[in-house]
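Predict both folds.
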Amino acid sequence: MTLKFLGIIPNTPTDEFPTIWLHEETGDLLIQSYKATEDEVKACQEIGSIPGHSTDVPDHETIIRLPAVMLKYIPRPDDN
């Protein structure tokens, strides 16, 4: 597996460090960030996504909260 570091929130404390990496073979993003709070997860479940999809979060998935400042590190189709 080949990962490429994309970014970290600048000036983060040494015990907090939301980070984004790119899996170069698949194009997937690996994101380390803050866990969504119980209230945030409930709100996501109340809103749902598309008809017919469960609002449960499977054991192998989680909901994270990505700080807006991290959006600049997400690759766009026109990035080369």
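Second protein follows, with its predicted structure tokens after the sequence.
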Amino acid sequence: MKTETLKINITQRILNINDFKILSKIAKLLDEENSVGYDMDGNPISEKEYTKDIHEALHQLNEGKLETYSSEEVRKKILG
């Protein structure tokens, strides 16, 4: 089955579901599997993981535990 055919088939099946519990499970699965980017090793990152990482970084920043650099400092590090 081709990707487009499978997508249409799944969409039609989802539209016919009236059970909130099943729809919630589908939504949870999609949320967990939705890749929004890749890590430094090329592995996909889910939206959930990305959001968690951002919140953790903001927490560390607020506590003064996150090392940050200005654009000029980055430029100097890269260019030597």
